[in-house]
Amino acid sequence: MGFVQRCCQFAITALLIVVTPAAMQAQTAQAYKSFISLNVGTQTVSTAFDDNVVFTEFAEQGDFTTIYRIPTGSVLDIDGGVRLPMNLGVSVGITRFYQTSGADIDARIPHPFYFSRNRPIAGNTSGLDRREIALHLSARWFLPTRNPIEFSVFGGPTFFSLAQELVAGVQFDHTYPYNSATFNSTSTHETSKTVFGCHLGTDVGYFFSPNAGIGALIRFSQASTTLPSSDGENVSLNVGGISLTGGLRLRF
Predict the structure, then answer these.
(1) Is the pLDDT of residue 31 over 60?
(2) Closest CA to 50 of 242, 241, 227
(3) CA atoms of 62 and 40, how far apart (whole Å)
(4) Rounded-to-integer distance, Cα 169 and Cα 246, Å
(5) What pLDDT, on the 0 to 100 scale, is given for residue 147?
(6) What is the pTM assigned to this prediction?
(7) Which of 21, 70, 249, 252 has the fewest CB atoms within 10 Å, measured from its CB?
(8) Cis peptide leading into 148, omega within 30 of 0?
(9) Nearest CA-CA partner of 75 in 220, 224, 251
(10) 245/248 Cα distance (integer angstroms)
(11) Rounded to a whole number, what is the distance in angstroms from the first to the last CA of the chain?
């Protein structure tokens, strides 16, 4: 069983353990607090994946391999929930990550006159969009601390909405006698998918009044999935990562 699967099992079990009795107690609790955090920051770890596409040109098969490199980028994180008895809580968070990236391309182009004489070309492309919107359902534990500090750890399942632009084809130039070719450009297509994963994190806040403060949040979220390639095969990739954010803390 992989890390993501173990993480998901642990997070879901923790969520159920916390939510079931705590939700029952919340109805009779005299003084629970709701809270909201508004954060901006960065997804701190870059990621990479590759895709091999087979195509037909001049009545023969060629192929190209694209290596995608998704750099770090800005993250918007909004989280809100309810603090329950026994230092427990539940929350819902939304994280948005958007980045444009480049890709390196290595292709083998069939010869128009001779079979089994593929011509190698290489190039790169840029401006490929990657969008991730993640919905986090969290169980929280607020560690005992002294005012004005508040510290919590949390985890649970995450639902990712992923959109990724992929290279669908390679355009090339060649001239008679066509023994070589050069890279020209690419065509692209966007594909999307909803993915189930999990997350773990920690949040620390400093409150300069009973209801307002500032804080920092670290969240690790991840899922593994596949997207359809332009030749009908699948591309394997990971979604999510480590985000480091900070911003406003409100409680009511």
Answers:
(1) no
(2) 227
(3) 45
(4) 41
(5) 86
(6) 0.84
(7) 252
(8) yes
(9) 220
(10) 10
(11) 42
